């Protein structure tokens, strides 16, 4: 019983074998999937997946890399889609200072607008944070994101940053990097996150875990992430899978299995 809380099954990398990838995930014990719609192209196809598979849910939001393309009508569109029963969060939203595709001031504005929408609707948020730890935390605080909480997707920050996010009602999610031999910091943080705030994900087709690193990631590989997380925490895999799935149920408000 596993929940992949962040994947991108609707992107072009899966166009040739999407159904087979989803079936392999089921065979690996994945009982629920949260797929991410993050711009004008991926939001409709993510919604379509939820209508095709009863165990797939979706987020809707605007990725910081695409912030420069977001219009006022797009925010209204996201609000409308949040009324759909299988849309479980607004995201992924946040800041990305690694890819120079949207000016920082535009990223900040779009991030704030979506947090405000989430608070208006009472929806949790899924946070993308790349090389922007200080500003992400500051904006979350200023916009009172603790009112809705959410998940820090594929967390890569320090334990100090993680504690600040936990204090704001966020879950901390880990992906493939915790399986990398030299990924010291993510493993150290995972070891300290309270079990009732821990989530696992793949971010497929990106961040493929060992031993498939360098190849396309798949949702079914969340099992490898969960096995590594269980080893780091010193608990049985089955317990880690149950705990993280129960956590996902609370956060995204879908039925427990």
TrEMBL record:
CDD domains: TatD_DNAse
Keywords recorded for this protein, A-Z: Hydrolase, Metal-binding
Sites where the protein binds a divalent metal cation 1: 6, 8, 92, 203
GO cellular component: cytosol
One Gene Ontology MF term: hydrolase activity, acting on ester bonds
PROSITE patterns per the UniProt record, alphabetical: TATD_3
Residues binding a divalent metal cation 2: 128, 153
Keyword Metal-binding: yes
Entry-linked InterPro entries: DNase_TatD-rel_CS, Metal_Hydrolase, TatD-like, TatD/YcfH-like
Protein name from the UniProt record: TatD family deoxyribonuclease
Organism from which the protein derives: Paenibacillus ginsengarvi
């Amino acid at each position: 019983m596993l929940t992949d809380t962040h994947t991108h099954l609707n992107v072009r990398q899966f166009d040739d074998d999407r159904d087979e990838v989803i079936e392999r995930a089921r065979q690996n014990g994945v009982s629920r999937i949260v797929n991410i719609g993050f711009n004008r192209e991926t939001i409709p196809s993510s919604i379509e997946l939820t209508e095709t598979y009863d165990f797939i849910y979706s987020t809707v939001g605007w990725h910081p890399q695409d912030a420069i393309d977001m219009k006022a009508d797009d925010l209204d569109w996201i609000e409308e889609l949040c009324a759909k029963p299988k849309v479980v969060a607004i995201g992924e939203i946040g800041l990305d200072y690694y890819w120079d595709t949207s000016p920082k001031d535009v990223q900040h504005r779009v991030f704030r607008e979506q947090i405000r929408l989430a608070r208006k609707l009472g929806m949790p948020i899924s946070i993308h944070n790349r090389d922007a730890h200080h500003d992400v935390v500051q904006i979350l605080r200023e916009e009172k994101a603790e009112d809705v909480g959410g998940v820090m997707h594929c967390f890569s920050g320090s334990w100090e940053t993680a504690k600040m996010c936990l204090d704001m009602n966020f879950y901390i999610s880990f992906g493939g990097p915790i399986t990398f031999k030299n990924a010291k910091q993510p493993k150290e943080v995972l070891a300290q996150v309270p079990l009732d705030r821990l989530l696992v994900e793949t971010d497929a087709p990106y961040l493929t875990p060992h031993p498939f690193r360098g190849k396309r990631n798949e949702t079914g590989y969340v099992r490898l992430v969960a096995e590594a997380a269980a080893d780091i925490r010193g608990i049985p895999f089955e317990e880690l899978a149950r705990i993280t799935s129960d956590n996902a149920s609370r956060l995204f408000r879908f039925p427990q299995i």
